[in-house]
């Protein structure tokens, strides 16, 4: 007699979702043949009562029957595994391939394959490192050649020759790197622009030691501009005066040459004269002091340097004021050195309309008097607070010098 029974009348799929589901841990639900309901049995590798919470316990196959042919039998929950000894291969099971001694030739083949793989990996690594080294080496050489190219284009050789012929050398100034000045100006951000002139743009720079400087960058890369750069360095290398802006160094590594000056905090004299908010700060005593200091700087340039220097662009925008309102003459890009045996030189006219000496303008003969004339216009600006050239005035008085002379005649 066979007793066939089942629990309830629902199959496993439905019964598993009921609260009174009878199958407990490590058991599975079984649908009986030709009957409704279900019954439970332990999972393979387990034995016991599937209707009790801990009824199904792991069967240790290694202890009961040891299904492994050789080597070690390792029991795991619900199963087991056979491990062949070292030097043998196979699944280690009696019912399987068992364990057989590994062929030494196969081992040799494995070692050979491993050796080839390692050799190939090392070769590829060496090739990669070598290629990277060659690439960076070429890139570094190209960078060095580019810097040498810029050095020559920026008049570096001419600068060295000129300074050496006058007893100086380029080492007397600090040579800044392009990266240094790029970082100091926040990549030449427009918020750092202090002003723009005929020969370049001036930026405010903050060096790594927090020193504030003014960095002059040429507007275009052209031989004429490079000559102006060399000229300014040569001229400033001859000057040591408290009323002349001090040159701190230069950079020759960039397409456009760069000059680094001391930073003058109070801006230009022009800003103070013509800005209504600042004009009140310039008392008559202060204006007289600024005029005297500017005159002293020009007198020094004309008579106290080893070779007389004509500024050639004296104007209120080229006179800076420091925190104590001490005048500092700046922008020597148009300046010329005059040999001691010559009273004048013939050159192309350069300067700013309104300040330009009429005699120099018509004859091309540059003398110290050209600076004196321009300084006279600066004095009239200080006296009248009027701009040097204005098309709002009558045609005969557009030039401030003419306006001042006409005003003097009317008073007389």
From TrEMBL:
Q: Which Pfam families match?
A: EGF_CA, PK_Tyr_Ser-Thr
User: What residue stretches are annotated with the EGF-like domain?
Assistant: 8-57, 58-94
Q: Which organism is it from?
A: Prunus yedoensis var. nudiflora
A single GO BP term for this record reads: cell surface receptor signaling pathway
S-S bridge residues: 23-40
State the superkingdom.
Answer: Eukaryota
Q: Which UniProt keywords apply?
A: ATP-binding, Disulfide bond, EGF-like domain, Glycoprotein, Kinase, Membrane, Nucleotide-binding, Receptor, Repeat, Secreted, Serine/threonine-protein kinase, Signal, Transferase, Transmembrane, Transmembrane helix
Q: What's this protein's name?
A: Putative wall-associated receptor kinase-like 16
> TM spans, by residue?
113-136
Question: Which transformation does this protein catalyse, written as a reaction?
Answer: L-threonyl-[protein] + ATP = O-phospho-L-threonyl-[protein] + ADP + H(+); L-seryl-[protein] + ATP = O-phospho-L-seryl-[protein] + ADP + H(+)
